[in-house]
Write a structure and sequence with these properties.
This protein is α+β, with helices and mostly antiparallel strands. It is built from nine helices and six strands. It starts with a helix and ends with a helix.
């Protein structure tokens, strides 16, 4: 058993006897079958109706199961709350481990990790499986068109601001803006295949090897030519997506 699966097993064992918990499922690379030693653990805890606060109260106990976290960070968005836990390299070499634990109600199982593969690890009554079966596995074409249009609107600002940063010799700002441009490219490329795309979540799989070479070269040598190359790559995907 991998160390990630060992962490998951410990978390699920803690949830087993909790009356406020209807079930739990994995997302991210563990659910997709692409996990490696550097992957995070993405777990969603599904609360019984009316006991959401009770389930949320388990976050401290769950965070301590992989070991004492160095840092925890809580955040919320519509339908879900999450605690992100960071563990050090002494416990999880070579670079530590991140465990993200989201909490949601049974009626909102689409909120923690929308349009992502899910792997059920706890389902008390079978209701979680039925709820997940009703969740759309992919965004609608209209949603993707809106996403690409939003990216297209921002891309011109990224490109212009990157050129300003290059002229001023502001390398940190230039690097940040090139990263935003790359994320827009991945999103547009994924949309051509009917999916949402993020670089850190398997985004490179939506790009051809030669396109990945363009991105790597741009990030290794940030400058005016890098901005031009990334702009050309984005337009190729953005406009073809709009016309598909």
């Amino acid at each position: 058993m991998s160390r990630l699966e060992t962490v998951v097993e410990g978390l699920v064992e803690r949830l087993q006897g909790e009356p406020s918990v209807a079930g739990a499922f994995l997302g991210g690379s563990l659910a997709a079958g692409r996990a490696d030693d550097l992957s995070d653990v993405d777990l969603a805890v599904v609360a019984v109706e009316g006991r959401e606060e009770e389930a949320w109260g388990l976050r401290g106990d769950l965070a301590a199961i992989p070991g004492p976290p160095l840092w925890t960070l809580e955040r919320a968005w519509p339908g879900a709350r999450m605690v992100a836990c960071l563990y050090g390299p002494q416990t999880y070499p070579p670079l530590g481990l991140e465990v993200d634990i989201a909490f949601c109600a049974l009626a909102e199982v689409d909120a923690p990790m929308p349009y992502a593969p899910a792997r059920i690890v706890l389902d008390r009554s079978g209701r979680l499986a039925r709820a997940l079966a009703e969740v759309p596995s992919a965004p609608t074409e209209a949603f993707l068109e809106e996403e690409v249009e939003r990216r297209r609107s921002w891309f011109a600002f990224y490109a212009r601001d990157a050129l300003v940063a290059e002229r001023r010799g502001d390398l940190p700002q230039l690097a940040f803006l090139l990263g935003q441009m790359v994320e827009a490219i991945v999103a547009a490329a994924a949309a051509r295949h009917g999916a949402l795309g993020v670089w850190a979540k398997g985004g490179p799989r939506w790009l051809a090897p030669r396109e990945l070479d363009v991105i790597r070269a741009a990030l290794r040598a940030p400058g005016r030519e890098a901005v031009q190359q990334l702009s050309q790559l984005f337009e190729r995907y953005a406009w073809s997506t709009a016309r598909r």
